[in-house]
Specification:
Nucleotidyltransferase, domain 5; three-stranded antiparallel β-sheet; five-stranded mixed β-sheet; alpha/beta; 3 domains
């Protein structure tokens, strides 16, 4: 029998090497096992096969998300851009709603602040969702959405991780392209995948926050949520068009199969890939560029390419 610690140790090593015998030797040494090397190697091979079989049905848990926030008041002497002393600001910016969807799923989920405009429970629920994602995709997500969620979390005393694996489509647009504008609505327009919903402007936010009656605030919140839902749908569509042209932030294949998946497609985790071309670095290291049937192009080291051609 192999205990839980040994199984976890093997799982860790399977992510870093394809050599089952080497792993078996480490297991015997680390846990002082009085077992034959071949018997341990067979168990390691069995665990690898089990991991790969499980990985075949595993999708990358990519989350698409967007938030809408409230505003604050501050007394000023004149109109125009100016410095406002923080002590003059009345209230705190809150999160009105959070909308999100999982890749490969149709449903867009909506979370909103409560009838008292308290966003604590919404933040607690969404932080659980964030923690279950392999990658979170948003437009200006790193600089705005994630920081705002973290700000409200610390103000509300809700714990969350200091870092999340993200893919910011605004950063990708600025890095890889030269669009006339990098706003999500413009990208959706020029890439011909859709537009943001039209709305009345600041008046919608004002009715949502300061509507004279409960019914007015409720209707405004409904419209705000619909606006946010469309942003999430548009976000995913823009990402899907951009995907073949940008680098990935998460290696799906390694998440699925561990070390043996290093040559596979980092986007879809598929193995139907082929060599596109070969390049070298200034230092003389060989880089192999691969192309997947999902249109993703990526590069791997020459050593990993040898793993690909030998099927190991």
């Amino acid at each position: 029998m192999y205990g839980k610690q040994i199984k976890e140790f093997i799982a860790l090593k399977l992510e870093s090497t394809s050599n089952n015998t080497a792993i078996a030797r480490q297991v015997i040494k680390e846990f002082n096992l009085e077992k034959d090397l071949e018997a341990v190697r067979k168990f390691v091979a069995y665990r690898r096969g089990k991991m790969e079989k499980k990985g075949e049905s595993r999708h990358l848990k990519r989350l698409f998300a967007d938030i809408e926030t409230s505003y604050v008041y501050a007394p000023v002497w004149r109109a125009g851009e100016q410095y406002i002393n923080p002590t003059n600001i009345k209230g705190e910016v809150k999160i009105i709603c959070i909308c999100y969807k999982w890749q490969y799923e149709d449903e867009v989920h909506t979370l909103t602040w409560d009838s008292k405009q308290d966003d604590k429970e919404m933040i607690k629920e969404f932080i659980k969702v964030l923690g279950s994602a392999d990658e979170v995709c948003g437009h200006n997500f790193d600089r705005f959405d994630l920081r705002m969620i973290r700000t409200r979390a610390i103000q509300q005393g809700v714990l969350m991780y200091p870092k999340y694996r993200t893919l910011d489509t605004l950063k990708k647009a600025r890095k890889y392209f030269s669009f006339m504008s990098n706003k999500l609505d413009y990208l959706g327009h020029v890439l011909e995948v859709g537009r943001k919903l039209d709305h009345e402007g600041f008046g919608l936010w004002k009715r949502c926050v300061e509507g004279e009656t409960k019914e007015i605030r409720k209707e405004a919140l409904k419209q705000m949520s619909e606006y946010c839902v469309q942003d999430v749908v548009l976000l995913e569509d823009v990402f899907n068009v951009m995907m073949p042209y940008i680098d990935h932030n998460t290696n799906h294949a390694v998440l699925k199969f561990g070390y043996s998946g290093r040559w596979m497609c980092p986007e879809c985790g598929g193995s139907n890939v082929k060599l596109s071309h070969t390049d070298t670095t200034p230092m003389g290291y060989i880089k192999r560029y691969m192309r997947c049937e999902c249109k993703k192009t990526y590069h791997i080291s020459n050593r990993t390419y040898q793993q690909f051609i030998t099927g190991s």
